[in-house]
Amino acid sequence: MASSSCKSSSSGHLSILFLLLLATAASLCALTVTAAGTDDGGSSAATDSGRRARAAATVAELLSVHNAARQAVGVAPLSWSAQIAGYAKAYARSRRGDCAPRRSPLFYFGENLVVGRGRRWNATALAAAWVAEGRWYDHATNSCAAPSGGADGCLRYTQVVWRNTTQLGCARVVCDSGDTLLVCDYFPPGNYGDGRPY
């Protein structure tokens, strides 16, 4: 689900800055804990190194899926934002209990969410579903011919390729149900006004 609005009040900006600072602090704490390891016997330097390598591979794959779609329509690639990913991670974790792909309350970012049934979904396969919506988007008429029942139409695709968006941060969680939730946040947000995404 991609955002179609953006808050501009000063209290909204303060809330956004506060959340970004919290996300940054959480990211720094997580990096410190990961680098130092734990004493509980459940983690080692090799395990931590493996986790970091898998996380880096997931980031590279998510950027690849997004940037291939952007390259296909002639817009600049996205870069990864650890701060935005921290916010996405906090929000994804908050949805772990119900695994509902509902939009977060912070409208400062564009946002795409998807749930894959089961725990074996990787982030790349989930994000590819958003890119696949592009088959229904007609740039000449700036319209979407998604089949009925597709509540989001092409909005997730148009957020992926939105020309002014420059940064991406995502998080994937396995929910209590055993399903997989992917949250990606985009800055600046897309899908505003009647303009074309590219």
UniProtKB/TrEMBL annotation:
Signal peptide positions (record): 1-30
Keyword Signal among record annotations: yes
Domain SCP as annotated: residue spans: 57-194
Superkingdom: Eukaryota
Pfam family, one: CAP
Sorted UniProt keywords: Signal
Record-linked Gene3D superfamilies: CAP
Protein name: SCP domain-containing protein
Protein species of origin: Paspalum notatum var. saurae
